Amino acid sequence: MKLEGEVRIPSGCAIAAVISKDGKGITGDLIYNAMKPMHDRSNGLGGGFAAYGIYPEYKELFAFHIFFDHRSTRKECEAFLKERFEIVKGELIPTRKLPQITDEPIIWRYFVRPLSSLLISEQVDENEFVARSVMKINTSMKGAYVFSSGKNMGCFKAVGYPEDVGVFYKLEEYEGYSWTAHGRYPTNTPGWWGGAHPFSLLDSSVVHNGEISSYDANRRFIEMFGYKCTLQTDTEVITYILDHLIRRQGLTLEEAASVIAAPFWSTINGKPEKEKEKLTYLRTVFSSLLITGPFSIVYGWNGGLMALNDRLKLRSMITAEKDDRVFIASEEAAVRVMEPDAENIYAPAGGEPVIVRVKEGNY
Amino acid sequence: MQEHYIYPEFEVMRNKDRCIACRVCERQCANEVHRFDTELGVMIADEARCVNCQRCVSLCPTHALKIVKSDCRLRENANWSDSTIKEIYKQANSGGVLLSSMGNPKPFPVYWDKILINASQVTNPPIDPLREPMETKVFLGKKPDDIRRDENGELITEISPQLELSMPVMFSAMSYGSISYNAHASLARAATELGICYNTGEGGLHEDFYVYGPNTVVQVASGRFGVHKNYLEAAAAVEIKMGQGAKPGIGGHLPGTKIVGDISRTRMIPEGSDAISPAPHHDIYSIEDLRQLVFSLKEATEYKKPIIVKVAAVHNIAAIASGIARSGADIIAIDGFRGGTGAAPTRIRDNVGIPIELALASVDQRLRDEGIRNNVSLVVGGSVRSAADVVKAIALGADAVYVATAALLAMGCHLCRTCQSGKCNWGIATQRPDLVKRLNPDIGSQRLVNLMNAWRHEIKELMGGMGINSIESLRGNRLMLRGVGLTAKELEILGISHAGE
Predict the structure, then answer these.
(1) Three-state secondary-structure class, residue A6
(2) Rounded to whole angstroms, how far apart are CA atoms A314 and A214?
(3) Strand order, beta sheet including B216-220
(4) Which of A128, A134, B121, B248 could be bridged to A124 by S-S, CB 3.0 to 4.6 A?
(5) C-beta separation of B45 from B11 below 8 A
(6) Nearest chain A Cα to B138, which residue?
(7) A264 contacts in chain B (CB < 8 Å)
(8) Beta strands A343-346 and A318-322: pairing type?
C-alpha cells in the first residue's frame, strides 16, 4: 500500500480550538478533553495539536519538532542543521507510553537560530531561510520530517485518536494562550505520523476538516513559488497558500480569506464600488488560489486564530465566547466540554472569516 | 492524353414514389447536381458534382432524397487505399497541390475521447447547479507577480488589461471573405449576447460590425489585411496570428475572384487582386521581433487591450510558448492539428502539427515549471467539440477554448469539407449573394446562443458533479482527469493518471 505523499488520501475530520484574548495560559488537557465528544469524527488514524506561547524561555528561537525513522537519520539531519543553524538546545520530546499509541518514530525538538552569515549570503530573511531549510529536509532527507518550525509554538501529532495523542505528548504539562486540535478520519491506513495534522510552516498552522475539490489546481499553482506538496493533503496546500498570501504577498487575513473563500461574483457586484474593485482584483489576480469543495479550517499564528468555512459552508463549524476566551469547534459539544457556560454560540457563514487576536503585548 | 475517370464518391438516392418533382433540390444545389428532365418528367442527378452537403436532403419536402457513399470501389488494397489512389489520379490530371477544407479527418487518436472526468462520492459532496451558484466567468490576461499598496496601505487594484468572458469559450478566427457577411453577423451578435468574444480572422472588420467591438477580437496576420487604427481601437483584444493548426508553417490565399465589393473594402485591397498572406510575418523572423510587434500593438492601443499571440501546435510548442510568454503577450492561443480551415493544402492539413491535448498539457506544465504560468492566459482550439472537451481542456490547464467548427455546425454547416469551392449551400463559406441570404443572422445568432447556453449548462453539471463551483478551481486541476487506454508516455505528457489509479 502506498504511503501518505505517494497517493492522495481524502479524509473527514474534527477540529477544535481555544484562545485567550488576554494571552492567559491554558493547559493542553482542556483541548484534548474537548476532542472526546467528537470521537466518532476521527477513526484513530491521526490526531494532533498546535500550541502557541508554550516556549517562552526560547521565544526568540525557532523550535523544530522532527520525526526520525532511525538514529542514523537523526545524525544526518543534525549535521545538516549544524551547517545552517546555531542549535541552542536539542532534546527528545517527552512522551508517555500508552497501549493506544504504537509504532512511534524518534521524536526530537531543537531550538535553533539561523546562521547570520548564511542569511546574508542567501539574501533572504530568517523566515524565508527557515522555510527553505524545512522544505529541503522534508523533500530530500528520507526518514526525517520537520512537522513544526515556528517560534514559541509547537505542533504535536501522531497516529491515534486525538484525546490519546494529547495524553501521549503530556500536553497537560504545557501552558499556551492558544490551542488548535485535530482528529482525522482518513480513507486508508497510511500509518505515518507525518500525515497527521495540524500542518505547520514557521508559526502558521492549519487544522482542517474537509476534502477540497480544487486541490490540484491549487497545488499546481502554489508549487510555482517553491513550495513542494509532499503529503498531497488539503491541509498542506492550504498552509502553503496562506503562507504565500500572508507572509510573502503581504495580504491581510481578511484579504487572504476573500481569496481562498472568494465571494461569488453576484455578491461582489452588489458591493459598494471601492469594495467591489478590491474583491474583483483579488479574485482575478489570485484566481488559482480559490478553494472550492468543503472545508472548515482554523489557521493559527503567533498572536491569533482565524476560523474560516468554504463559501458554501459545506462543513459544520461554530464559534463561542466566555470571558477572555474564544472557542471554535466542529461541534458545539466540544465547546461545552471546554466551557459549559459558553456564550454567543455562532455559526459563521460560508466564506466569513472569524479572526481573534490576542491583545498586543500579551503574548 | 485522357484524364483518369474517377467514379463519383456519392450516389443520390431518390425515392421515386415520394418525389413530386417540385425541383426544390435543383434550386437549392449550387453544385448543380439536380436537374429536371422535361421529356421524361422526372428529376435526374449528376452525382459527380455532389459534395454531400445534405442541403437537398434537408429541404426535400417529401424526404425523397438521401445521399449515400458509393460502393463502386477500386480493388481493395491495405496499402493503397481508394482515396490515396484517387488523389494520385487527381494530381496526375491537374499537376496541382490538393486542396481541402475544415479539420484533419484522418483517424489519428482523439485524446479527449480517452480522458474521463471525476465526480464526488461520499468524501465530499457534489453540488447541484440548480440550487447553488455555479460560476463560469473568466478573466484572460497577465496577472501581476506581486501586489502593490498605496501610501494608506490600500491595495492598488490596477492591473494589465483583461478580457472578461462569461464562460471560457470564444468563437475563433474566421475571416470575412472565407465566410459570409451573414455568418459574421451571426457570430458577432451571438458573442455580444453571450458575453464572450468572436474573432475577425485576418479579413478586417466590416464597418457594420464595429458596434460589436467590445465582444470582438481583431486579428493582425502576416498579410496585415484590414489593419488600421480604428480597427485596433474597436476591439476588446488584438490577436497576432503566427500560425493556424490546419496549416502550420504556411500562409493563406484568398483568390481575387472573392475579393469583391465589401470584402475588398474591408481588407483594404483592390477588387480582384489575390489576398496572399505570407507564411511568416516579414517583420518577425525571431522571438525578439515578436516582442517588438507585441509592444507596437500595445503602443497603438495605449496598453488598454490584451494582446493574443496565436500559434499552431507544433513539435516544440512548449519552448515556443515559453518564448511567447516572455514576449509581453497577455494571452497565448494554441491551435491543434485538427483545427478547421476554409482552404489548406491537403498534405499539410493531414500531416503537419500535433494534437492540441498534448500541446496544451506540455505548455501548461512548462510554464508552471518556469514559474511564469500566471504571466499569460492559455486559450486552446482545434478541435473542441463539446462541453466535455471544454471541461477536459480547462482541467488540463487552459484558461479558455476557441471553437469554430462547432459554431459553423450550429449555423447549418454539414461538414462537407468543400469550403474552398465557395459554393456553400448553407450560406456560410460563400460570397454568392443568393447563397449568403440563405443564412438568416437572426436565426444563426440564436442557434449559436442556444449552443453555448447548452454547453454552459453541461459545464455546470460536470463541475457540480466534481464538487467544484467555480471554473477557476477547475483550471489545471488534472486530478479530476483519468486516462483510458493510454500508454505510460501519453499519460506522462498529459500529466494525468490512468483510470483505476
Answers:
(1) coil
(2) 14
(3) B169-171, B400-403, B377-381, B331-335, B307-312, B237-241, B216-220, B198-199
(4) A128
(5) no
(6) A284
(7) 133, 135
(8) antiparallel
Phi and psi at residue B55, in whole multiples of 5°? -65, -50
- Give the pLDDT band of residue B3 (cuts 50, 70, 90): confident
Distance separating alpha carbons of residues A136 and A252, to the nearest angstrom: 28
Contact check, Cβ <8 Å, A265/B137: yes
**Model confidence pLDDT, tens digit, residues A39-62:** 988 888 889 999 999 999 999 999
Q: Does the annotation count A155 as an active-site position? A: no
Tell me, what's the pLDDT at A1?
59
DSSP secondary structure code for residue A190 in this structure: -
Nearest to A281 among B127, B159, B478 (CB): B159
Q: Which chain B residues touch A225 with a CB distance below 8 Å?
A: 371
CB atoms within 10 A of CB B337: 28
State mean pLDDT over B116-121: 95
> Which of residues 259 through 318 in chain A touch B, CB cutoff 8 A?
262, 264-266, 277-278, 280-282, 284-288, 290-294, 311-312, 314
- Round to the nearest angstrom and report the end-to-end CA distance of chain B: 63
* pLDDT, mean of each 10-residue run, chain A (363 residues): 66 90 96 94 90 96 96 95 96 95 94 96 94 93 94 96 96 97 77 86 93 94 92 89 96 96 96 96 97 94 96 94 96 96 96 96 87
* Statement: A11-357 belongs to CATH 3.60.20.10: yes
- Domains of chain B in start order, with CATH, are 10-96 (3.30.70.20), 165-468 (3.20.20.70)
CA B141 – CA A224 distance, rounded (Å):
18
The Cβ-side half-sphere exposure at B396, using a 13 Å CA radius, reads: 31
DSSP state of B48: G
